[in-house]
Amino acid sequence: MGDLAAVVIVGVGTYVMRAVFIVALAKKRIPETVLIALRYVGSAVLAALVVTLLTDAGGNVAIGFPEVAGFLAGGGVAFRTRSQIWTLVAGMVVFWVVRALV
Amino acid sequence: MSVDRSVARQGITDALPLFVPAIPFGLVIGLAITEAGMNPLAGWSSSWLIFAGAAQLTLITLLGGGVALAAAISTALVVNARHLMYSVALTPAFQRQPRWFRWLGPYLLIDQVFALVTMRPEEDPDRFRTYYLAAGATFWVLWPAVVALGLLIGPVVPDEWNLGFAIPILFIGLLVVGTETWPEVVAALTGAAVTYLVASLPNRTGLLVGSVAGVTAGTIVERLRRG
User: Fold this and answer.
1) For labeling, which of A6, A73, B113, B154 is most exposed (least CB within 10 Å)?
2) ipTM of this complex prediction, to 2 decimal places
3) Per-residue pLDDT for chain A (102 aa), expressed as one digit of tens each?
4) Which of A23, A11, A45, A72 is nearest to B190 (CA)?
């Protein structure tokens, strides 16, 4: 029972965090300065997420040659093709190959 | 109608590659539920009630580790605090949406959906909504299924594949495609660098610090460019 209650509370809390600004500011005029700042949330968060995903439980960022090679391959293919699936294939294959070599 | 269908198809096609690296993660969560000795149904429900892998794993692990309920709950919520930034960032786009979608859309606002809609923006409100729903529904259908699979059969994808690394690869790909102006480049680089510097902060709070720093840097550069 306690487990389910915990899941429900975190679920409701997560929904509230996802919805709060979208619902509360639906009809509010957003100042120009804020609109400008909001444009940079996507780039800033995604880049920060990449680093977070490479961080292990001890707070160390694990990035070596294979990861950098995978990023370069995936980034390059994304730029050329704009395709998610080819980005995935290229990035992972290069990552695996370089990891096997070094 | 035909336009709608192609937009929906695009949303699904864009979401599926992002789902591939989520598979081993979902399986691990299934296994974690078993190992935590949780009620399996309560554990599995987290996949559609919380619908955020990192927070689910945090909560399940802490509950299994015998941490006080309130501490486990608040830690999982801190891990999920980044969604506040998604909510504020998408507020302008949702202002052009019908009210039902302003209530439903946030439920599907996971990292991957946020990444897709901010890096591949649809200006037209109807296309935005179709794309968003298609990408979100893809995850909403598949994610609970994979967690259930993890409960039943455990982690069948070998660890050595490091399939999870595909998530940062795909995010880098979206960044490359979606980052077009100098302030955006500065925002991304600052966000990454600051997150790296504060990586030892617990519960993903470094992510929040880094993101705010990135947004601030991007805004400052924009200001300087305007003179």
Assistant:
1) B154
2) 0.91
3) 689 999 999 999 999 999 999 999 999 999 998 999 999 999 999 999 999 889 887 888 888 999 999 999 999 999 999 888 999 999 999 999 999 998
4) A45
Q: Which residues of B touch A49 (CB under 8 A)?
A: 82, 111, 115, 168, 171, 207
Residues 6+ apart with CB under 8 A from B223: none
B23-56 core/surface letters (b: 16 or more CB in 10 A; e: else): bbbbbbbbbbbbebebeeebbbbbbebbbbbbbb
The C-alpha atoms of residue A34 and residue B70 are separated, in whole angstroms, by: 35
Q: How far is B7 from chain A (nearest CA, A)?
A: 15
User: In whole angstroms, what is the distance from residue B164 CA to residue B13 CA?
Assistant: 19
Closest among B15, B171, B105, B36 to A6, alpha carbons compared: B36
Q: How far apart are CA B56 and CA B80, in angstroms?
A: 10
